[in-house]
Amino acid sequence: MINLLIQTMRMGTPLLYGSISEVYAERSGVMVTAIEGIFLMGAWAGFVGAFLSKSLLIGCSAAILAGLLTSALYGWITVFLKQHQVVTGTAINILSIGICSFFQRVIFGVPLTPLTVQPLPALPIPILSKIPFIGQVLFNHNILTYLLFIVVPLSYHVLYKTSIGLTIRSVGENPEAADVAGINVNRIRFSMVLLAGIMGGLAGAFYSIGYLGMFTTTMIGGRGWIAFAICFLGNWNPRGALIGTLVFGFAEALSIYMRSIGGFVVPNELFIALPYILTIVLTITRKSFDTPAKLGIAYSKEN
Fold this sequence. Notes:
By secondary structure, this protein is mostly helical. Helix content is 71%, strand content 0%. It has a domain at 13-218. Helix 1 (2-27) packs across helix 7.
């Protein structure tokens, strides 16, 4: 059980980065449907940066930059050019696969053995990591997981207890009134998309250099969409995103555990699909949503 909960924390880390960033973007009125591509670009750039420089710090920086550039492209097209957010995100997700595949081949060719880096090490927190059960589960992770101990409460405080959070929520609920009050609606929305790119890039880097120590174009495998769904299921609230992340992280950890022990009549493919089945079931059974009023609707003064 302890190992299962530890794995839940690990698998939930990138999902929480993605879902919280999605909460901020969608509270401002923009669905970042390019999240899958942002995750993938972050994973690829993080691995390439770490492999070539032999520095995990440079790898994380490269992942942030890749996520930022990908989200900037998405934000420019959807926020300023007013194009459809779902269509644009789908196109960027497909484009990201092509970019990563092409440049992976250009840079590394066709290696005879898998290319690997040493992933981010676990950093046990003195004293706290020695606490029975809790210490092993919470205080024996890498730096990306520990950062969430700050990010989660800070994200809730900023969104609901500060004027900045009020501004973000106002441009998603009533952009016309926010505009009249002197708020640059599209600038706020674009900034939130960029924030989603930064956090999504780190989420992708977790898979390549924070956990597996390698890169493949299939490694994200829809987890960006799971983070996207967690935002909805968490009712566009960082606390809801945290709860949803723990549920989905546990489902993925359980899937990995069941496949590792084997010997079941049930096919392994069913365990692989478990987090995605859970996504569908929870989405269908959810009764009500506190959806931002202008979510997915581009804003211009002419409207």
